[in-house]
């Protein structure tokens, strides 16, 4: 006779991660259900060129867990789908106090980046410890030993990007680093009078990097004034503020906690609505020849 758990008994990790949402500019879905403003989209969209996953749809029912982690749940927002065209994965991870992993991934060809949206996270990379708070960023090169642990009293939320690092002759692997967004001066876009600025975690002149993670900030009324169209993909997560975003042929209203996945060539533009700044995390693949998966 097999033992079946009694009805209603917890199965697996008994930690209840459902907590009230975080406040402040990094507030998002990670620590609970997002605010319902009624102003931004509450409809998920999936097309040949893009997907929109609104914060209102990131609920308990669509979470996953990963082997090798404790006190953890995650929303898998993006991952390579077709096996040759897409470059990256992006997850929102939520950790209970003391939750984390000593072996977050198993694939030595994958590089990683982390951005903390709430709580406190200790990241150890090849024996060097970094303490990250909201706005904290860490880059973890492929083939590195690393671990993460929630070092706060409440839940911690962070974004996790994974991408196969693409070697190139004469180019070494990038080195690990950690930074806080608040310590980096944003670079204004030329001719925008400061209405559009980018905070860069990677140095654009450093060709060891084949992916860039940035925080893009628009003042109210700021815009991307033409339909940018390029082969590079994007993962785009709204940290703060409201905007209408052009995705291929459509205009979509977006707000805090909403995620947009843009395939290669998806035309894109936006208008920031105010009253505060519109800010988003942006992933982009850069600096390499095109090639077939796994990025040869
Ligand atoms: N949607 C964006 O913010 N795109 C950027 N301007 C970029 O591709 O760099």
From TrEMBL:
Pfam families: Cupin_2. Keywords: Hydrolase. One of its GO terms (molecular function) is ureidoglycine aminohydrolase activity. InterPro entries: Cupin_2 (IPR013096), RmlC-like_jellyroll (IPR014710), RmlC_Cupin_sf (IPR011051), UGHY (IPR017627), UGlyAH_cupin_C (IPR044697), UGlyAH_cupin_N (IPR044704). Residues 92-156, 215-281 form the Cupin type-2 domain. Coiled coil: none annotated. Residues 1-35 are annotated as: Disordered. This is (S)-ureidoglycine aminohydrolase. It comes from Paracoccus tegillarcae.
